[in-house]
Amino acid sequence: MPLSRTWSVALLGVDGVPVEIEADVSHGKPKVQLLGLPDTALNESKDRVRAAVRNSGLEWPDQVMLALSPADLPKGGSGYDLGLACAVLAGAGSVPQTKLVGTVMIGELALDGRVRPVRGVLPRLLAARRAGLKCAVVPEESLAEAALVAGIQTLGAYRLADVLSWLKDEESGLVTPRPPVPAVMAPGLDLADVVGQPEARWALEVSAAGAHNLLLVGPPGTGKTMLAERITGLLPPLTPNEALEVTAIHSIAGTLSPKVPLMTAPTLIAPHHSASMASLIGGGVGMARPGAISLAHRGVLFLDEACEFGGSQLEALRTAVEEGEIRIARRDGVARYPARFQLVLATNPCPCAPIRDVDCKCSPHERRRYFSRLSGPLLDRIDIRTRMRPIHAMDNADLGPPESSATVRERVTKARVRAAERWAEHGWQTNAEVPGPALRRHFRLPAKAMRLLDRGLETGFVSARGADRCLRIAWTLADLAEKDRPDGDDVGAALEFRDRRAA
């Protein structure tokens, strides 16, 4: 009997690798052999596929050898089931091989022949398109997600029998994608709900405008969590490329909603302080899966009660904050996940956390020990630090009505547009992404504007890294003020944002 071939895709982090599925069918003692470093779930597919084929009304051949290439690439999961079944039946002559050439098959098979959805359809099809494959058959429930990939024909299958009818050029139940329905975004939390805190509100606006990391310190009940939860309402929508990046990560993690296949708004991810290292940065057996920092890609990672997190978890954030991605080595290889998030921390100043500092019962040693969980190297990567004060009146009539998120978002969007236009030729989108050497050499400020920063370096008020971050904040302040370049006042304001007394 002839050798048959079709295609599927393996996932290494967010990177897909096309996998060629070969089936060699012969007569003899019944036997199924699967080659290509399969994991347990994939090895069990031999039994799932055989039952699905028989329950679809077709005969299973006697001897089957299945090979998945590249042979030295570890492969896992149940997403190969559909491709394995079609390759076997094509090798047995039950269906023609014509349409299998250039087609990628993705889906898990139930024992009765139903095609079940799997994780990571979007990144798999992106890899298939790069490899030149022109057609894809995916589970019907994943069709909306698959349709996000332009340049490749996508078909949705509910049962294996529908796919086999399509391969025979018979009338089948395969469906094509429907026109996308615009998602109706639920109204978010409004900044107008926060009472008082003008300094913290301004810090939040600057943070959102430049994608700067933010630390909120203050007693309980002052609005730290309320402010942090409203920062995504100030951010502009994701660009098309960013939306695909974020959607691909959530598809791999299995958190993508079938009703909203494309994520167009920045997300707020807020893990509990008891979260494990694996849930925070990613992990798992075999090939690591994305963690909270990758789910927050192009959005906000909010760590409430930051000083309650374990030291190792907090220190693990340092590399991701600097590099914008995380690399996790596991048994089956190194997984790479994007992790360009905006870090927002909120914490009480001490363990007892009274409303007023004068009521604190902690010793100086206890206060230092509590706050030292945020290490110096981590704090050096926090651009903006602000101290929140107790609320003394629920009606701040003297300050006027609080601004809404829509009003602040308009200013933030204008500032982000100015920054994106300025850095476009260099490939940066926000001020927080600009490397320090570029700011010091190619966008150097006049000596008068740099005088305060030089003084801060001389006195040890800021480190070299902190000075670079002050320059980024200064550019953000200039963008909000609609100025072409920062001046000395902007640099001075940036230094105030990094005042150690706020921490």
* Main β-sheet description: 5 strands, parallel
Q: Which overall shape is indicated by the principal axes computed on the Cα atoms?
A: elongated
Content of β-strand: 15-25%
Major sheet: order of its strands? 11-14-17-10-18
Indicate the radius of gyration in whole angstroms.
27 Å
Mean pLDDT: 90
Number of strands: 18
Quickly give the structural class. Answer: alpha/beta
Q: Give the fraction of residues assigned to helices.
A: 25-40%
Count of DSSP H/I helices: 20
**Alpha carbon gap, first and last residue:** 73 Å
Would you identify the regions where 5 or more consecutive residues have pLDDT less than 50? none
Name its key features:
about 500 residues; alpha/beta; 5-stranded parallel β-sheet; 20 helices; 18 strands
Describe the model.
With 503 residues, this protein is α/β, with parallel strands linked by helices. The protein has 20 helices and 18 strands. The protein has helices spanning 40-43, 45-54, 81-91, 121-130, 143-146, 160-167, 198-210, 224-229, 240-253, 277-281, 292-295, 311-315, 317-323, 364-371, 376-379, 405-423, 436-441, 447-459, 464-480, 488-497, and strands at residues 4-12, 15-26, 31-35, 63-69, 103-105, 108-109, 115-116, 135-139, 153-157, 214-217, 268-269, 282-283, 289-290, 300-304, 325-330, 333-338, 342-347, 384-387. The strands form 6 sheets. It has a 5-stranded parallel beta sheet. A hairpin with a 5-residue loop joins β12 and β13. α7 (198-210) packs parallel to α16 and α7 packs across α19 (464-480). The mean pLDDT is 90.
At a glance:
This protein has 503 residues and is α/β, with parallel strands linked by helices. The chain has 20 helices and 18 strands. Strand 12 and strand 13 form a beta hairpin.
